[in-house]
Write a structure and sequence with these properties.
CATH superfamily of the largest domain: P-loop containing nucleotide triphosphate hydrolases
Largest sheet: 6 strands, mixed
Distance between the termini: 45 Å
Strand content: 15-25%
Strand order of the largest sheet: 6-7-8-3-9-10
CATH class of the largest domain: Alpha Beta
Radius of gyration: 20 Å
Structural class: alpha/beta
Number of domains: 2
Shape: globular
Order of helices and strands: EEEHEEHEHHHEHEHEEHHHH
CATH architecture of the largest domain: 3-Layer(aba) Sandwich
Helix content: 25-40%
Number of strands: 10
Length: about 270
């Protein structure tokens, strides 16, 4: 679906990403993690053609992004900015959603707009800027989903959201992924990554340190330490108790492991 072949990108002589090679397959849910400045957002913008590599190739369905118009990529890849206000510009939510459809030339824009408004429980006549941060993020996501992209790239999608808003946002994203949408998520919340992502790419200074299944990645403390990334707290606890308990990456798994150990007379 999206393929990086020895991709590098420099700004003013400084390398932002260095010799990246990986593939995101159709239907995957991939998280990009790393410290600030690791290159996560740069990688996500290379994926949808907002940035072009200075070396190597980024391919979408086998076609280099340098050969594709931004409008063509926008039909295939939706990008949700960390700050929803950066992609809202219309006086009503209805116009906001219809705007994205108009840009992609959708002939049934009116019908799709109303369907998305209903699905997301949004008031089409409301000014999006009068809504809460969580609601504005919902509007931004709805405007992307209306276009029906094959890939959804999320740059810190839960920043500024409370727990309820965060879970509602991620439930929608998870449902989209279950329906076949490929998801790439830039995220600093490792608990969220553990709960939702199937695969994790760990970046440091623009280079790829580790690429693997989520639980396996979070158990590689040595590499995560190099990237200044801490595993989720439950995984850290499990690693400390590895001599007496089997691996556990959720509270439920930890509870089950402790109960089993107690039955065997093992103290944990």
């Amino acid at each position: 679906m999206i393929q990086f072949e020895n991709v590098s990108l420099s700004y003013g002589g400084a390398a932002a990403v260095r010799d990246l090679s990986f593939t995101v397959g159709r239907g995957e849910f991939v998280a990009l993690v790393g410290a600030n400045g690791a290159g996560k957002t740069t990688v996500s913008k290379l994926m949808n053609g907002l940035l072009k590599p200075t070396a190597g190739r980024v391919l979408v369905d086998g076609v280099p992004t340098t050969s594709l118009r931004t409008s063509a990529l926008a039909k295939k890849i939706g990008f949700l900015f960390q700050n929803p206000d950066r992609q809202l510009c219309k006086p009503t939510i209805r116009e906001e959603i219809r705007f994205g459809l108009a840009l992609t030339g959708a002939k049934d824009a009116a019908q799709r707009t109303e369907a998305v408004l209903e699905a997301f429980g949004l008031d089409g006549d409301r000014d999006p800027f009068s809504a809460s941060r969580g609601e504005r993020q919902r509007v931004a996501l709805a405007s992307l989903i209306a276009v029906e992209p094959e890939v959804l790239i999320l740059d810190e999608p839960t920043t500024g959201l409370d727990y309820r808003e965060c879970m509602a946002m991620m439930a929608r994203v998870q449902a989209l992924n279950a329906a076949g949408t490929t998801v790439v998520m830039v995220c600093h919340d490792m608990e969220l990554v553990l709960d939702f992502a199937h695969r994790v790419l760990v970046l440091r200074d623009g280079a790829l340190l580790l690429d693997g299944e989520t639980r396996a990645v979070f158990r590689n403390e040595a590499v995560l330490r190099q990237a200044s990334v801490l595993p989720p707290q439950i995984t850290q606890l499990s690693l400390r108790l590895a001599d007496c308990l089997p691996p556990a990456d959720t509270v439920e798994e930890m509870e089950a492991a402790v109960r089993a150990a107690r039955k065997k007379g093992v103290s944990a």
